[in-house]
Write a structure and sequence with these properties.
This protein is of the alpha/beta class and 258 residues long. It has 11 helices and 7 strands. A 5-stranded mixed sheet has the order 3-2-1-4-5. The longest helix has 18 residues. The protein starts with 6 loop residues before the first strand and ends in an 8-residue tail after the last helix. The model has no long low-confidence stretch (mean pLDDT 91).
């Protein structure tokens, strides 16, 4: 690889998937200088909020892991200096990692200018090398070369054939639609909603799985902090499914496990 400026390769793990509200829990940087020298730094960060179980399942970092770790502010200035003059690279960095990093810098009053830097997203490179479009999915899981068609009935049947091919290709993919939907999002059978914001406890009770009431029974939150559920049920930051669960709980209709 030919470098005219240092290249900082970033890996960022967080509390969630929305860069505007998520917080960093681990940040790793590999800085490669034009002379080929390399320097690696990695820190675990206390996000100042509870880490959802769905996020812990991805990166293995829980509330107990970060309890005695510094917050991002402790690293912000030094990190900005370390990244000064560097081009940036990462897997999915354009869509998630970089926006999240910029948001963290902004929250802590540290200037971090991206203009003038090259940003290389290795996920985008991968998708260019191995396209993830309809035609490539058809070729891999059905076989043959797909020809674009305006024939609606044929296309929906082809989509179903792709799905069947995906199920046959790997035993890891569940067979039931509801289980497939959860599997694609990394959720297990304890999830009540498709985002895992509410889960079933070991005792079969509906339990909050995010925010300040994470780990508490939904029934207890109704009694202790109904204002929180009122906010949740009316916030457009959450899906209709999550909002409906909160609204139903307020009305006395708690989820029941079938």
């Amino acid at each position: 690889m030919e470098l005219s400026s240092p290249l900082a390769v970033l890996d960022i793990q967080s509390t969630g998937l929305k860069p505007d509200i998520a917080r960093i829990v681990r940040l790793s940087v590999l800085r490669v200088d034009p002379d080929g020298s390399e320097n690696v730094k990695s820190v675990i960060v206390n996000p100042g909020m509870s880490i959802p179980a769905s996020a812990t399942q991805v990166h293995g970092i829980s509330d107990s892991t970060v309890v005695d770790k510094p917050v991002f502010r402790a690293y912000a200035r030094g990190l900005a200096n370390h990244l000064e003059g560097c081009d940036l690279a990462g897997f999915g960095i354009e869509r998630f990692g970089l926006p999240l990093l910029q948001a963290e810098f902004k929250r802590n009053g540290v200037d971090f200018i991206v203009t003038g830097r090259s940003v290389v997203d290795t996920m985008t490179v991968f998708h260019r090398l191995e396209p993830r479009d309809f035609s490539s999915a058809y070729s891999r899981f059905v076989g043959g070369i797909y020809s674009d068609s305006d024939d609606g009935p044929k296309r929906v049947r082809d989509i179903f054939e792709i799905l069947k091919g995906e199920l046959q290709a790997s035993s890891e993919v569940p067979l039931k639609p509801n289980e497939i939907a959860k599997w694609t999002k990394g959720l297990d059978d304890s999830a009540i909603d498709s985002e895992g914001k509410f889960i079933w406890s070991e005792n079969g009770d509906a339990q909050v799985n995010f925010g300040k009431h994470r780990g508490e029974r939904l029934a207890d939150v109704v009694t202790a902090d109904v204002d929180y559920l009122n906010w949740l049920s009316g916030s457009e930051d959450f899906s209709d499914e999550v909002r409906n669960i909160a609204g139903s709980a307020i009305a006395g209709r708690l989820p029941e496990r079938s």
